[in-house]
Design goal:
8-stranded mixed β-sheet, single chain, alpha/beta, 8 strands, Spore Coat Polysaccharide Biosynthesis Protein SpsA, Chain A
Length: 315
């Protein structure tokens, strides 16, 4: 394909053999109507069914289709990051591979991008998923994410989003970070918008996610808050904790000095507690100094280059 694609559609897949062909046709039809050069980047995330075989067939029939493959399942975030790395378009659109996202919404995303936004997020306002196990936890998670990160959108978990390549390629993606992309793009001063998109019931297979992922989301929220709030000055993050422990250490010592009723065994315990707080405080400050040195001598977003090591291009 000699023409530079202006738009890249990135789709991670895992055991979606029944969805691959109809999804490809749906995306192709939607993009053909745009009358703009495009490419489709599929990432097979270690599927054990015929997903990769079908993708290879599609690739041989349509040179606008790129296929990458993981040897084992690394998760949606890694698969999405691999797609972003291989995408050549100036605008990158991500979407799920289970046919629940609607490719006919692509023109709406692009139209919103033309208003000057860098990231446009889809909002599954009429979400077609189970109420208690999917929709309710999602509402709670979105509220917490907005409260912690300051980026308040309705649906962080919707994969149907549009990005400027110059923005999304600067965002670190690892772990379960794909649902925090809007918040992470604030590190690149991105302008973020949200539009209502269609959402369809799952036609084939079953969801790869369940209620058990909640604890991982909570841990990732802490990580995202640290990256957003303290990535440029990690000493602030560790320094706050260090000062807190040092204050607790001094408070314990002064409490011990001012007490005349403690027996020797209690004095030993209090000294041990005070020393522990002192050690934790100095340790936290030391970690902050190391983090500052790391940030000043290394990449601002480490780990991004790890993704290509677990993928290969289709023949």
């Amino acid at each position: 394909m000699n023409e530079h694609p202006g738009i890249s559609i990135v789709v991670p897949l895992h055991n979606e053999e029944e969805s691959v062909v109809p999804l490809y046709h749906s995306i192709s039809n939607a993009c053909a109507a745009l009358e703009r050069p495009y490419e489709i980047v599929f990432t097979d995330d270690g599927s054990r069914d015929r997903t990769f075989e079908l993708l290879k067939q599609i690739h041989h029939q349509d040179m606008r289709v790129k296929v990458t493959r993981f040897r084992k399942n690394y998760g949606q975030t890694a698969a999405m990051a691999a797609g972003f790395d291989h995408a050549q378009g100036d605008i990158i659109i991500s979407m799920d591979g289970d046919l629940q996202n609607d490719p006919t919404d692509i023109p709406l995303l692009l139209s919103k991008m033309e208003e000057g936004f860098d990231v446009v997020c889809g909002w599954r306002k009429n979400r077609q998923d189970k109420f208690w196990t999917r929709r309710v936890p999602s509402v709670i998670a979105n509220w917490i994410i907005g409260l912690v990160t300051g980026v308040r959108i309705h649906d962080n978990g919707c994969s149907l989003k549009a990005y400027r390549a110059s923005v999304i390629k600067r965002v670190p993606l690892y772990g379960e970070m794909h649902r925090f992309i809007p918040a992470m793009t604030t590190q690149a001063d991105a302008r973020i918008a949200e539009i209502v998109v269609n959402h369809h019931p799952r036609r084939f297979g079953k969801s790869k996610y369940g209620i058990g992922r909640v604890w991982r989301v909570l841990l990732d929220i802490i990580t995202v808050k640290m990256i957003i709030g303290f990535a440029a000055r990690p000493m602030l993050w560790f320094g706050y904790m260090g000062v807190l422990f040092l204050v607790l250490s001094l408070a314990t010592i002064f409490t011990e000095i001012g007490s005349t009723e403690l027996i020797p065994e209690e004095w030993t315990v209090m000294y041990t507690v005070a020393f522990s707080f002192l050690f934790l405080g100095l340790h936290s400050i030391g970690l902050g100094i190391i983090a500052e040195l790391t940030m000043s001598t290394g990449d601002f977003f480490p780990g991004r280059s790890l993704v290509p090591a677990v993928q290969r291009k289709a023949n």
